[in-house]
């Protein structure tokens, strides 16, 4: 029973996370401002990190958490770089 | 010491000596000479002591596998012919080394001279002793390259540079021809082994590829031996120091061509095609060389043309297809080397002592240097073919062959006349040399006061001239047996009966000799006054200069033709290049589609996984968006690219490749930052707002490009779809999956493949990565940004202005306030990320991770510090030396690879073991992990180096690129 609940909840979570990714992607594509795109891009990263976690839960191994850890630890680097670029016109000064 | 070892040492000794000689200090003239003399003397002793083994009749052989799968082996083979030649090369080499001690001035770079000289001797011995045709070509090319260095030894002189370049171009082209010819022979015979080739003469001669093969081989031989029409490089190569000429242009370099012809004569010779090709080239070189030699003013020029003529004689003898001709050819190769080497050295002495080689300026030197003069006279007499000297013997043999009929044709009928006329010319130029230099009036205005050279400088000539005399008087006793084993090793069972006697009775050849001697002497008497004042070069042919034609051709090929091709076919526009590339690959891919019918494989399209499909919709949307925005909105395109990248990474996870996903994610992140860094320096671009009113041609062009791109993309899709719906053939991946743990000691198959099974590939790849990083570094040192990016960005100017304007703010406050909290977090993350990188690295052998991923993660840590606090702040506190990281990485990886040699395994064999550490527990300790450490270090170094050079652009004072206004408009 609990297995069934898990399966269903993971499936629903995945669909919802993908929907979140899709919405974020739409914002990235449409903009209108660069700041909107950067924020949406960060959201896309977070959603994909969670998607990876659900994927690990579904397959029952911890092997996939590695990738989620990479996003969690370093995913913000590109966001910061983009933010810096928008604010100052260059990334490292 | 057995004979195989001696054979190996004979090749290795000169090269080892060359390396040693290069290390001496520049002024150690005597020590250099001692070392070089010992090396060459060692080579003489080695070849001499191989005689008993060779004299048994079976060649001495040494075979070391090199690339066995390609039929290549490092095989050395010494038979009688090779023995004779190696004696010739080593003995004359030894004598020239002694001579050079006195010839070269203390100001010359002596180590360079001896190093190249010995290396050349090694390469020449390599040609002689190669038992494999490909190996022979390798040594052949080596002689071309080293002779370039030797001819251009005085590189400060323009004529030396030109002569060196010309000889390299001509002999290099010939070497390529030879390589192609050898490949053809190998194709016909099925082996490159010299013995196998020598055994299949009939097969080669009857093969349809025979004619192309001999044309190509002869191209190599003719260019090397300076045969007509490739003869003109040799006189220009006389800009070399005289010892080099004495060695290269008498006994070695130019002899390589005729050596090869004689070597392959039993298999290639004897046909009508061979006769015409070699006969024509030989006869033309013989006659023209002798004719041109008469009219040279430079002594060395005279000797160079005489060399062309004598080599022509040898070629002509080899063209005849008669065994007696081959005997005469081999004998003449020997004789020519002895007298020509001594003559070159004599010319060097004259030049050295009097300061000029111009025969119109010289004269009357006999009284000042009687010994040298006598020696030179004897050697020239041998060159002219005077009886009782060695040149006479082989010339008699040549005459005897010339009057025989071999292949009924004009060439054959003309042969006796050509022979007599050329010999008469030889007599003329020999007399001219002697008379003009040593007799007549002594000129008053010589650059130096001539006198006899030191004894040791004369000694090599004395020995060689003695050899000319002894061979000339008692040939059978002195060289008879040596010549015989050489002849037998070339001709085998066809060895004819020949006699080396001086006196054969009153024969036709003797009559021809007498005619040539008298005719030549008469010709000189007639020409004497003309020659004393004439201008350089022979009459009638003066205007027709091979050199000039060569230069015209070079200018045409390398300049005009290249420019023409560039102007008509080339473009500097990226769009056109891409269009061409895509179009060509489209056509190339479409042909097999069309010919063998496109069809899908057997696999049914499975049920669509809805979440996966949704994921891909997102990815595709991002990718298409990125392509759409790439031209005018680079930042947007970059963000969209990031979106597509993350979707790719999730796909990897979805399809069970977590290690790939980890690596790809790290690469995505670091690449995004690196591209952002570069974005700052790209020239700005504005979208043409009046897109609707773009000219019709622009619209058409864009439409066509879109069409091409769409078709290419569709084709790629169809192609991959067709491939993926087929069962994969039994690939190597199964092997890797099975063997990864038991042989590589790791469970992460990808990592084991990278650092163990394919370790050598990885080694190459990281080397390339290091080179790329250094190239980026080097390019950025001279970086000139586009003029519109040279100022600091607009945002910074506005913020700085605001800071200035407002009284409650200090300058630079905006930037220091900006991202304050994230900055602190980023700084604190530094150790965390390092731990994460260490974690990725250590578990890489069994689980996702590895040196590459760890290296990228580590460089992300550095990037964060630069982002958080700026270049100046970081570099005040942290000394990162990325170039050292790169070097260390390569060193570690290389040492681990070499380490396995110590234990007797091939390069990069890994050893694996688990060790139990307290607290940490059991960790894998394969040597591959050390290799991985090298990878890690290099990746960190390379990435950080690129990052730093980018970052430094912002704090440098930059100069704008010089772009003319028209170019800017064009770009915009």
TrEMBL record, chain A:
<feature type="transmembrane region" description="Helical">
    <location>
        <begin position="63"/>
        <end position="87"/>
    </location>
</feature>
<keyword id="KW-0812">Transmembrane</keyword>
<comment type="similarity">
    <text>Belongs to the CPA3 antiporters (TC 2.A.63) subunit F family.</text>
</comment>
<dbReference type="Pfam" id="PF04066">
    <property type="entry name" value="MrpF_PhaF"/>
</dbReference>
<keyword id="KW-0050">Antiport</keyword>
<feature type="transmembrane region" description="Helical">
    <location>
        <begin position="6"/>
        <end position="26"/>
    </location>
</feature>
<feature type="transmembrane region" description="Helical">
    <location>
        <begin position="38"/>
        <end position="57"/>
    </location>
</feature>
<dbReference type="InterPro" id="IPR007208">
    <property type="entry name" value="MrpF/PhaF-like"/>
</dbReference>
<keyword id="KW-0472">Membrane</keyword>
<protein>
    <submittedName>
        <fullName>K+/H+ antiporter subunit F</fullName>
    </submittedName>
</protein>
<keyword id="KW-1133">Transmembrane helix</keyword>
<keyword id="KW-0406">Ion transport</keyword>
<keyword id="KW-0813">Transport</keyword>
<keyword id="KW-1003">Cell membrane</keyword>
Automatic annotation (TrEMBL), chain B:
<feature type="transmembrane region" description="Helical">
    <location>
        <begin position="852"/>
        <end position="874"/>
    </location>
</feature>
<keyword id="KW-0472">Membrane</keyword>
<feature type="transmembrane region" description="Helical">
    <location>
        <begin position="302"/>
        <end position="320"/>
    </location>
</feature>
<feature type="transmembrane region" description="Helical">
    <location>
        <begin position="209"/>
        <end position="234"/>
    </location>
</feature>
<dbReference type="InterPro" id="IPR046806">
    <property type="entry name" value="MrpA_C/MbhE"/>
</dbReference>
<feature type="transmembrane region" description="Helical">
    <location>
        <begin position="635"/>
        <end position="655"/>
    </location>
</feature>
<feature type="transmembrane region" description="Helical">
    <location>
        <begin position="36"/>
        <end position="60"/>
    </location>
</feature>
<feature type="transmembrane region" description="Helical">
    <location>
        <begin position="371"/>
        <end position="394"/>
    </location>
</feature>
<dbReference type="InterPro" id="IPR001516">
    <property type="entry name" value="Proton_antipo_N"/>
</dbReference>
<feature type="transmembrane region" description="Helical">
    <location>
        <begin position="608"/>
        <end position="628"/>
    </location>
</feature>
<feature type="transmembrane region" description="Helical">
    <location>
        <begin position="80"/>
        <end position="99"/>
    </location>
</feature>
<dbReference type="InterPro" id="IPR007182">
    <property type="entry name" value="MnhB"/>
</dbReference>
<keyword id="KW-0375">Hydrogen ion transport</keyword>
<protein>
    <submittedName>
        <fullName>Monovalent cation/H+ antiporter subunit A</fullName>
    </submittedName>
</protein>
<feature type="domain" description="Na+/H+ antiporter MnhB subunit-related protein">
    <location>
        <begin position="822"/>
        <end position="944"/>
    </location>
</feature>
<feature type="transmembrane region" description="Helical">
    <location>
        <begin position="6"/>
        <end position="24"/>
    </location>
</feature>
<keyword id="KW-0406">Ion transport</keyword>
<feature type="transmembrane region" description="Helical">
    <location>
        <begin position="506"/>
        <end position="527"/>
    </location>
</feature>
<keyword id="KW-1003">Cell membrane</keyword>
<dbReference type="InterPro" id="IPR025383">
    <property type="entry name" value="MrpA_C/MbhD"/>
</dbReference>
<feature type="transmembrane region" description="Helical">
    <location>
        <begin position="762"/>
        <end position="780"/>
    </location>
</feature>
<keyword id="KW-1133">Transmembrane helix</keyword>
């Amino acid at each position: 029973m609990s297995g069934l609940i898990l399966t269903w909840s993971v499936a629903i979570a995945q669909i919802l996370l993908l929907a979140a990714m899709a919405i974020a992607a739409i914002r990235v594509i449409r903009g209108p401002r660069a700041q909107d795109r950067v924020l949406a891009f960060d959201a896309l990263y977070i959603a994909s990190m969670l998607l990876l976690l659900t994927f690990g839960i579904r397959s029952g191994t911890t092997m996939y958490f590695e990738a989620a850890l990479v996003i969690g630890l370093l995913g913000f680097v590109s966001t910061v770089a983009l933010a810096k670029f928008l604010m100052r016109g260059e990334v490292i000064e | 010491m057995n004979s195989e070892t001696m054979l190996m040492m004979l090749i290795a000794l000169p090269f080892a000596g060359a390396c040693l000689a290069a290390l001496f200090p520049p002024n150690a003239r005597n020590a250099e000479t001692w070392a070089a003399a010992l090396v060459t003397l060692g080579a003489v002793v080695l070849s001499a002591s191989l005689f008993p083994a060779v004299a048994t009749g079976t060649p001495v052989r040494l075979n070391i596998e090199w690339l066995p799968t390609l039929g290549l082996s490092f095989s050395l083979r010494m038979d009688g012919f090779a023995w004779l030649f190696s004696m010739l090369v080593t003995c004359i080499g030894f004598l020239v080394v002694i001579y050079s001690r006195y010839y070269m001035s203390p100001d010359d770079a002596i180590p360079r001279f001896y190093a190249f000289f010995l290396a050349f001797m090694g390469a020449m011995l390599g040609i002689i002793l190669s038992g494999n045709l490909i190996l022979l070509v390798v040594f052949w090319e080596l002689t071309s390259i080293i002779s370039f260095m030797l001819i251009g030894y005085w590189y400060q002189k323009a004529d030396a540079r030109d002569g060196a370049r010309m000889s390299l171009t001509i002999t290099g082209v010939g070497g390529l021809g030879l390589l192609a010819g050898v490949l053809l022979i190998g194709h016909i015979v099925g082996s490159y082994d010299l013995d196998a080739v020598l055994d299949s003469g009939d097969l080669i001669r009857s093969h349809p590829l025979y004619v192309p093969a001999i044309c190509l081989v002869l191209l190599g031989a003719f260019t090397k031996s300076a045969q007509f029409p490739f003869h003109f490089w040799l006189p220009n190569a006389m800009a070399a120091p005289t010892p080099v000429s004495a060695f290269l242009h008498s006994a070695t370099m130019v002899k390589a061509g005729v050596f090869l012809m004689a070597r392959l004569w039993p298999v290639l010779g004897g046909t009508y095609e061979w006769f015409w090709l070699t006969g024509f080239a030989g006869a033309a070189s013989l006659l023209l060389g002798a004719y041109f030699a008469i009219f040279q003013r430079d002594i060395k020029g005279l000797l160079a043309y005489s060399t062309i003529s004598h080599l022509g004689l040898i070629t002509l003898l080899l063209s005849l297809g008669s065994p007696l001709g081959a005997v005469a050819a081999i004998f003449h190769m020997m004789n020519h080397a002895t007298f020509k080497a001594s003559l070159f050295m004599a010319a060097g002495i004259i030049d050295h002592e009097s300061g000029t080689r111009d025969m119109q300026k010289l004269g009357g030197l006999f009284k000042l240097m009687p010994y040298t003069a006598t020696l030179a006279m004897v050697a020239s007499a041998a060159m002219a073919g005077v009886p009782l000297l060695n040149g006479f013997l082989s010339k008699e043999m040549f005459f005897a062959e010339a009057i025989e009929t071999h292949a009924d044709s004009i060439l054959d009928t003309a042969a006796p006349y050509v022979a007599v006329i050329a010999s008469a010319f030889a007599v003329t130029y020999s007399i001219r040399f002697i008379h003009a230099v040593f007799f007549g009036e002594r000129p008053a205005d010589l650059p130096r006061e001539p006198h006899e050279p030191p004894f040791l400088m004369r000694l090599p000539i004395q020995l060689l001239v003695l050899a000319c005399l002894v061979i000339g008087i008692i040939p059978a006793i002195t060289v008879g047996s040596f010549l015989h084993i050489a002849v037998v090793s070339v001709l085998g069972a066809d060895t004819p009966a020949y006699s080396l006697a001086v006196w054969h009775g009153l024969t036709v050849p003797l009559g021809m000799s007498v005619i040539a001697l008298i005719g030549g002497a008469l010709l000189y008497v007639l020409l004497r006054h003309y020659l004393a004042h004439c201008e350089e070069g022979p009459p009638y042919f003066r205007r027709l200069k091979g050199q000039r034609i060569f230069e015209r051709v070079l200018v045409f090929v390398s300049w005009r033709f290249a420019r023409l091709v560039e102007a008509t076919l080339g473009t500097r526009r990226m769009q056109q290049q891409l269009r061409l590339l895509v179009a060509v690959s489209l056509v190339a891919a479409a042909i097999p589609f069309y010919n063998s019918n496109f069809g899908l494989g057997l696999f049914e399209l499975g049920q669509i996984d809805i979440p996966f499909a949704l994921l891909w919709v997102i990815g595709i949307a991002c990718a298409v968006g990125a392509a759409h925005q790439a031209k005018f909105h680079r930042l947007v395109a970059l963000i969209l690219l990031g979106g597509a990248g993350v979707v790719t990474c999730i796909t990897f996870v979805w399809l069970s490749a977590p290690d790939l996903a980890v690596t790809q994610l790290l690469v995505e992140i670091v690449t995004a930052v690196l591209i952002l860094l570069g974005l700052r320096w790209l020239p700005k671009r504005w979208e043409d707002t009046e897109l609707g009113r773009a000219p019709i041609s622009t619209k058409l062009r864009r439409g066509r490009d879109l069409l091409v791109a769409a078709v290419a993309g569709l084709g790629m899709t169809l192609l991959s779809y067709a491939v993926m719906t087929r069962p994969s053939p039994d690939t190597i991946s199964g092997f890797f999956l099975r063997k990864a743990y038991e042989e590589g000691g790791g469970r992460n198959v990808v990592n084991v493949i990278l650092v163990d099974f394919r370790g050598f590939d990885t080694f190459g790849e990281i080397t390339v990565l290091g080179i790329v990083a250094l190239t980026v570094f080097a390019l950025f040192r001279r970086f000139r940004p586009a003029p519109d990016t040279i100022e600091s960005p607009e945002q910074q100017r506005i913020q700085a202005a605001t800071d200035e304007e407002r009284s409650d703010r200090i300058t630079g406050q905006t930037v220091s306030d900006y991202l304050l909290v994230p900055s602190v977090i980023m700084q604190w993350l530094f150790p965390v990320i390092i731990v994460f990188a260490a974690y990725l690295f250590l578990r890489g052998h069994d689980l996702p991770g590895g040196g590459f991923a760890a290296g990228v993660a580590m460089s992300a840590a550095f990037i964060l510090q630069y982002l958080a606090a700026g270049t100046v702040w970081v570099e005040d506190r942290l000394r990162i030396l990325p170039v050292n990281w790169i070097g260390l990485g390569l060193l570690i990886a290389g040492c681990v690879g070499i380490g396995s040699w110590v234990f007797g395994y091939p390069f990069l064999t890994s050893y694996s073991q688990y060790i139990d550490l307290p607290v940490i527990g059991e960790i894998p300790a394969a040597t591959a992990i050390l290799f991985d450490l090298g990878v890690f270090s290099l990746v960190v170094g390379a990435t950080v180096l690129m990052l730093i050079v980018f970052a430094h652009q912002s704090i440098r004072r930059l100069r704008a690129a010089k772009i003319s206004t028209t170019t800017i408009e064009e770009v915009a």
